[in-house]
């Protein structure tokens, strides 16, 4: 059965909107665990628009499941990761002007830089995942530089406006997941997945972890974290 990794970034978004002390991402992380989350995800952005370094530290010291730290492969972030030592670092591309992560990491273009980051993290005992578009050449390169896993960027699929685009993007994800397994990479998926789109991954047993944030936190505003996480965990059980 696939696992659910809950991203609590947008609890911090709400806090930062007022420069206030609440809501606390660590509290959301604990509630998510109680409701069945298998891992907690935070994206520490260079511009610190939501999650702060203290959130990563607090969550790391408090949760009982796994911490997945999403970050750009910069020397500042590598220093933080080596200090906090999350279970996994997911390397993501980052642009200051984007609203959210727009594409997967271009491992082919930045091969040597990313390879060095993978070596540094793995030498410290941190697993490395690469957030990647469902592009077979990119995935082969992720394997070549010795990543442990890939997280297939599901944004284009989730945002597709027509059934033609949706089917095309779904096929890309299926092909990407299959090649990932063939290369013995862990295969995860995330970005833009909601309570409807998760159902479309039914039968795709190659994907062993779903990383979901915005939809869960949006629902939690209405229902509380417990119901929001339990409902998503149940949908993943039914895949
Ligand atoms: C890598 C990814 O798909 C998401 O985790 C995303 O980067 C989260 O960052 P935001 O919460 O800032 O959108
Ligand atoms: N890696 C994907 C993630 O952490 C959450 O993305 P989203 O559900 O907030 O789009």
Automatic annotation (TrEMBL):
Q: Which family does it belong to?
A: Belongs to the PNP synthase family.
Name the source organism: Desulfobacter hydrogenophilus
Name the residues that bind 1-deoxy-D-xylulose 5-phosphate: 9-10, 45, 50, 100
| Pfam short name (any one) | PdxJ
**EC assignment:** 2.6.99.2
User: What is the name of the gene encoding this protein?
Assistant: pdxJ
- Which top-rank group of organisms is this from? Bacteria
GO molecular function, a single term:
pyridoxine 5'-phosphate synthase activity
Output this protein's name.
Pyridoxine 5'-phosphate synthase
Record-linked InterPro entries: Aldolase_TIM, PyrdxlP_synth_PdxJ, Pyridoxine-5'_phos_synth
Question: Which GO BP terms apply?
Answer: pyridoxine biosynthetic process
Keyword entries, A-Z: Cytoplasm, Pyridoxine biosynthesis, Transferase
């Amino acid at each position: 059965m696939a696992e659910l990794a809950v991203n609590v970034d947008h609890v911090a978004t709400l806090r930062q909107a007022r420069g206030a002390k609440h809501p606390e991402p660590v509290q959301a992380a604990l509630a998510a665990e109680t409701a069945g989350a298998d891992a907690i995800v935070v994206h520490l952005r260079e511009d610190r628009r939501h999650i702060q370094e203290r959130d990563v530290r607090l969550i790391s010291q408090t949760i009982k499941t796994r911490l997945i730290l999403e970050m750009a492969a910069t020397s500042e972030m590598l220093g933080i990761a080596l200090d906090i030592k999350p279970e996994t670092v997911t390397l993501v591309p980052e642009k200051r002007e984007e609203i959210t992560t727009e594409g997967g990491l271009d491992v082919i273009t930045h091969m040597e830089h990313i390879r060095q980051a993978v070596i540094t993290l793995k030498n410290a005992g941190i697993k490395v995942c690469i957030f990647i578009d469902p592009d077979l050449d990119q995935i082969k390169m992720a394997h070549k530089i010795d990543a442990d896993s890939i997280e297939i960027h599901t944004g284009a699929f989730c945002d597709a406006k027509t059934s033609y685009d949706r089917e095309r993007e779904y096929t890309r994800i299926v092909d990407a997941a299959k090649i990932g397994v063939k290369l013995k990479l862990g295969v995860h998926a995330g970005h833009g997945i909601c309570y409807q789109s998760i159902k479309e991954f039914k039968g795709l047993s190659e994907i062993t972890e779903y990383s979901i944030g915005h939809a869960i936190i949006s629902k939690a505003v209405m229902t509380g974290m417990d119901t929001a996480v339990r409902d998503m965990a149940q949908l993943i059980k039914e895949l």
